[in-house]
Amino acid sequence: MATYETEHNTTDPAIDNNSPRRRRPDLSTFFATLSEITPAPDHRPHAVPVPGDVSAAFYSLAEAFEVMRRQAADLASDRGDGADGDDLLNRMIQSLLSEADTPPREVEGVSDEFCDMLERVPKASLDASQTCPICNNPFLDDEYPLVVQLPCHPTHLFDLECVRPWLRLRGTCPLDRTDFAKQLRDKAEERKKLVEEDEEEEWDGMYG
Fold first, then answer.
1. Distance between CA atoms of 89 and 76, rounded to whole angstroms?
2. What backbone phi and psi angles, to 5 degrees, belong to 190?
3. Do the beta carbons of residue 89 and residue 68 sit within 8 Å?
4. Burial class (CB in 10 A: 0-12, 13-18, 19+), 52
């Protein structure tokens, strides 16, 4: 039986045909794989992940970004602007595929805590011309945008949903390649060295 909408060539007013398409792919598989190769520090902290699992994480994120790239290209085609995807996203995909072919021994990304502590950008400070460098969508397309500023530069703003998986896996700024993960490792190593020096001085003071 035909619906009222079909018979009268109209649509249900509850359905908004002008609403933006979903442009961010499902990353549950990626994060599940990532959790397998980045165990908690108190659970086998020195365990080395299987290379195939590390490779799978890079492939998984590359595939998710490729879905995002195709969706962005489709939207650009619908708008008639002739764009065929974002150069930055293409470079990120190629980098991930290269890493997947020759995976590192361990994932060297940042922690979830690092991502959660990134500076949030208030919606009121955003304007309609600002877009996420990864998905290329205007931040204000989202009713409740979750935009973060990376520590390397005040203009390096991203949708957290887009940049979090990259940071967790690679630990770098997608724009200028600032290596946040290395900075954190260097700071941790420096703190460890200071603690060891303090303990050595205390030992010398007691038994010197």
1. 15
2. -65, -40
3. yes
4. exposed
Tell me the per-residue pLDDT of 16-67, one tens digit each, with 9 for 90 and over: 445 444 457 889 999 999 998 886 555 455 556 788 899 999 999 999 999 9
List, for residues 73-99, the tens digit of each pLDDT value: 877 777 666 454 468 999 999 999 999
Asked if residue 188 is part of any domain, the answer here is: no
Task: Looking at the structure, tell me whether residues 116 and 96 fall in a common domain.
Answer: no
**Domain residue limits at 90:** 21-39+47-101
Q: Output the six-digit token pair for 147.
A: 């935009």
Interatomic CA distance for residues 169 and 160, integer angstroms: 14
CA angle 140, 141, 147 (to 5 degrees): 50
Burial 128-142 (b: 16+ CB within 10 A, else e): eebbbbbbbbbbeeb
Cβ atoms of 69 and 93 within 8 Å: the answer is yes
Strands annotated E in the chain = 119-121, 147-149, 157-159
Distance CA 9, CA 124 (A): 40
Q: Is residue 34 located within the same domain as residue 75?
A: yes
Tell me, yes or no, whether 119 and 153 share the same domain.
Answer: yes
Q: Which is it for strands 157-159 and 119-121: parallel, antiparallel or unpaired?
A: unpaired
Residue 13 lies in a domain: no
